[in-house]
Amino acid sequence: MSCGQPAPDETQELPAAVAPAATCVRCSLPPGIVVRTTSYCWEHFHDHFTFAYRKGIDGARTRSRSGRPQDVLNGAKRGTKRSKVMLAFSGGASSRVLLDLLQKNSFTRPDDPSLSNPRFKPPPTFESLEILYVDESGVPGFGPDRTEEVRALVAETPFPFRSIKLESIFTPSTTTFSTSYSTPSLLTSTSTSTPLDPLTSLLSFLSPSTHSPTSLASLHSSLLHSLLRREALSSGCEILLTGETANRVAIQTIAGMAEGRGFSMGEEVGCEWEASEEEGGGLLVARPLSSILLKEVTYYARIRELESLTMRRPETGVEPKKAGIEALVQDFVNGLEANFPSTVSTIIRTAQKLGMRSADERERKVEGIRCPLCGLPAQLGAEDWRKAITISTLSDLKSAAPSSSSTPSLPAPAAAADLPSPEAALAPLLCYSCLLIMQGTLPPPRGAPTPDEEEKVVVLPPYVEEMARRRRRIAEEEEGVVGRRTVSGVEGVRREVEGYLLDE
Amino acid sequence: MAPCALCPADNPARAILRRPKTLQPVCKQCFFDVFETEIHNTIMGFGQAEGSSADGKGKRKELFRRGEKVAIGASGGKDSTVLAHIMTLLNDRYDYGLDLCLLSIDEGISGYRDASLDTVKRNAVQYDLPLKILSYHELYGGWTMDRVVGEIGKKGNCTYCGVFRRQALDRGAHLLTVDHVVTGHNADDVAETVLMNVLRGDIARLERCTAITTGGDLPPELDDPEDTKTLEGLLPRTIKRSKPFKYTYEKEIVMYAYFKKLDYHSTECIYSPTAYRGHARALVKDLESIRPSAIVDIIYSGEAMASSIKLLGRRAGGDPGPTNEKKGYTRAPRNSQQKCTRCNSLSSQPLCQACMLLESLNKGVAKVELGAEPSKEKLVGEANGSGAMEKLAV
């Protein structure tokens, strides 16, 4: 009993796996697959699988029909135009299956002989679909470019295919925005000299000598998802679909918790969420397969003979227990799931009950705070919290000896050793997880000469600068807030009273 | 000789340990300073992520109020011994104005608790704190844990022990007329519980296990005793329980006890659970070895996830959540509290869990399903026929 509440039997082992039935749960045919202790023949599995997909795509479908929230308010779109969709396609089994499901169920009518009115042909769920492949070969350890292999996989589909390199997140750039890891507050600077080429910037940002494998994986993921959102918006798409399965979501949930991503967990693992207004707004990011097990996806792909690529992980040459948090959690969840098939579904059911900060903000009609690095909801004051709970410098404490007066005085945790100008510090703007990554850089190798500050400066993607600038602008505006009215300068005051002014 | 990373750079002392939480090499004095200050920060409310709102303007809530009488739940183990030491030290150093005492529960586990209780008695003398020891034997009609295990076996015995201890602490607190009980649950314990609750899908318990203070019967935002404007301030409350070590690593507690040469008992409970919690425990240890801050990070995540349950708007799974149609917030209805018909303690059901479990032991029914609600008629009828527990009720 460690939570002060009577706990259920903690000594009890998880229930043992139940032996599967010898026939399909709905007919007498031999089963092709056992899903969560239920046996299905192919035909009935197909029904079950398609139903799960339709449930998963329902949010995107509704969005496509009703339009963006701002369009709904204007009454401009209902019942007329559908949304453009972008599919983030990695070439793996999940995204290949998602593409097949979209093609069969959301763009052409399925061949269903039981239709009461075969002449009735509903319009496609979405206006159009664009397939986007992000080439990550620039990241060390990811191997050669596989764009042509991926293009071949989707050649027979009617959808346009586009490939983009991960390093293009560093374009367009006329300046070089960088931060120094040598300062705990992550001071930033903007250089107007000739910007570095994108690949060099990427290698600087994802340098294995600066970050642990866990941090590298997290930074890589932030870059990838920011790029996908940016490309979807620039292509005029209102919906971005990604192919995470339930297994992936379960791993992301546990790994995300261990990496301090709890504040934005709903957005990271939910079925869908409204991406930040800061990035242009109006983009729904959906994960239609997030309730479907990898095992089901693999079976569907095998029976439908859908070719896919084997996904490669960066070669680190170390065992999962040391290769990073995500690799460790993947090993852990897969191990549990092998013995107890309800593990993944229990984790995702837990995660799907969570509320989302983005939905809450929309409901309360307030503008939320986003982390400039990962673009997800961030908790203001994460840095202060960390300083209070994990003290890494005692200089401020030692300079202020404990008071023996009746009112104890504690130096505020926010009082850092270095006090940079607030407009230059990146740390106060970051979410807790990104703060951990950026402040937790690796020490120089033993015996190596101490690097000067120049060696610890890394280039940041331009979107970080843009979002940081926006956050600072909002903060400056809030400083001028008195009560509920914003002091907006002479011009603002003039606008408010101009109805009463007479011509001079 | 590695220099201490926390000492002034011009004259650092020699580091004698690597801090488990940050892996910084530190000297003994800096370790003491940082260990004590982090706990002080937790007590002062700087370290409560749960209290912060999304905009960072959440009200900082201190753990104690001046003049409170606080019982330290003491088992004689490392956590509670260090807790007794730290509470005495910080209360003196920062003048919290707390009236401290030790409260110990004798579960009746021969070879384990009898030895650790000797340590508690020595601690009471060392820290000059009054000590109250309550035993399961006197509270539960002769049912010691040795007898319980003899009746039901080792499997599931922690359920009985946990429920009985919770009630025993409440009764002891009433006897000592304390307002607050502090326990030695450390960050490793909380992180394990957070992970375990996610692994078994218990989101409601996730909310409770991440709270630094439980009990008091009011949500933290309403728990202001000086607020006499609302009726809720006048309602009876259960004893508050807090975990000042919520963000303190188990390894650091051991190191602190070691370097301070504290007198503690280091034997594990002989009926200690291993199976279910073991999965989460192993994962936490592996995560910590990859990133030392992982334990605190899990707790931060658990707190943030627990607070997200109350958010408005859609759930992550797509289901509709509470909306903001009405102005202001609508609070979820709380379980109606009532008095246990047998022992008078506060309970959400006619019979509290401790009395239900005791009933099953007395009847010789070894297994009771927790959470299953027995029929009211049966329970009331049984309660009227037995007065043994009423005599024990405080």
Automatic annotation (TrEMBL), chain A:
Superkingdom of the organism of origin? Eukaryota
Q: Is tRNA processing tagged as a keyword? A: yes
Please list where the region (Disordered) is annotated.
Answer: 397-416
What keywords tag this UniProt record?
Cytoplasm, tRNA processing
The record's subcellular location field reads: Cytoplasm
Where's it mainly located? cytoplasm
* Any one Gene Ontology cellular component term annotated for this protein: cytosol
Q: Could you give a GO molecular-function term held by this entry?
A: nucleotidyltransferase activity
Any Pfam family:
CTU2
Which pathway does it serve? tRNA modification; 5-methoxycarbonylmethyl-2-thiouridine-tRNA biosynthesis
Provide a GO biological process annotation: protein urmylation
Q: Which family does it belong to?
A: Belongs to the CTU2/NCS2 family.
Q: What does this protein do?
A: Plays a central role in 2-thiolation of mcm(5)S(2)U at tRNA wobble positions of tRNA(Lys), tRNA(Glu) and tRNA(Gln). May act by forming a heterodimer with NCS6 that ligates sulfur from thiocarboxylated URM1 onto the uridine of tRNAs at wobble position. Prior mcm(5) tRNA modification by the elongator complex is required for 2-thiolation. May also be involved in protein urmylation.
Spell out the protein name for this chain. Cytoplasmic tRNA 2-thiolation protein 2
Taxonomic lineage per UniProt?
Eukaryota, Fungi, Dikarya, Basidiomycota, Pucciniomycotina
UniProtKB/TrEMBL annotation, chain B:
In terms of Pfam families, this protein maps to: ATP_bind_3 (PF01171), zn-ribbon_14 (PF16503)
Q: Give residue ranges for domain tRNA(Ile)-lysidine/2-thiocytidine synthase N-terminal.
A: 69-263
Region Disordered, as annotated, extends over 315-334
Which GO BP annotation is one of this protein's? Answer: tRNA wobble position uridine thiolation
* UniProt cross-references to InterPro entries, sorted A to Z: CTU1-like_ATP-bd, CTU1_C, Ncs6/Tuc1/Ctu1, Rossmann-like_a/b/a_fold, TilS/TtcA_N, tRNA_thiolation_TtcA_Ctu1
Main enzyme class: transferase
The main location class comes to: cytoplasm
Q: Where in the cell is it found?
A: Cytoplasm
Checking CDD domains in the record gives: CTU1-like (cd01713)
Q: Name the positions where ATP binds.
A: 73-75, 79, 105, 184, 189
EC annotation from Swiss-Prot or TrEMBL: 2.7.7.-
Q: What GO CC annotations are associated with the protein?
A: cytosolic tRNA wobble base thiouridylase complex; mitochondrion
| Superkingdom of source | Eukaryota
Q: Which residues form the Cytoplasmic tRNA 2-thiolation protein 1 C-terminal domain?
A: 338-368
PANTHER family noted in UniProt: ATPASES OF THE PP SUPERFAMILY-RELATED (PTHR11807), CYTOPLASMIC TRNA 2-THIOLATION PROTEIN 1 (PTHR11807:SF12)
* Role, per record: Plays a central role in 2-thiolation of mcm(5)S(2)U at tRNA wobble positions of tRNA(Lys), tRNA(Glu) and tRNA(Gln). Directly binds tRNAs and probably acts by catalyzing adenylation of tRNAs, an intermediate required for 2-thiolation. It is unclear whether it acts as a sulfurtransferase that transfers sulfur from thiocarboxylated URM1 onto the uridine of tRNAs at wobble position. Prior mcm(5) tRNA modification by the elongator complex is required for 2-thiolation. May also be involved in protein urmylation.
HAMAP family tied to this protein = CTU1
What family, per the record?
A: Belongs to the TtcA family. CTU1/NCS6/ATPBD3 subfamily.
Protein name from the UniProt record: Cytoplasmic tRNA 2-thiolation protein 1
What's the source species' lineage? Answer: Eukaryota, Fungi, Dikarya, Basidiomycota, Pucciniomycotina
User: Corresponding gene?
Assistant: NCS6
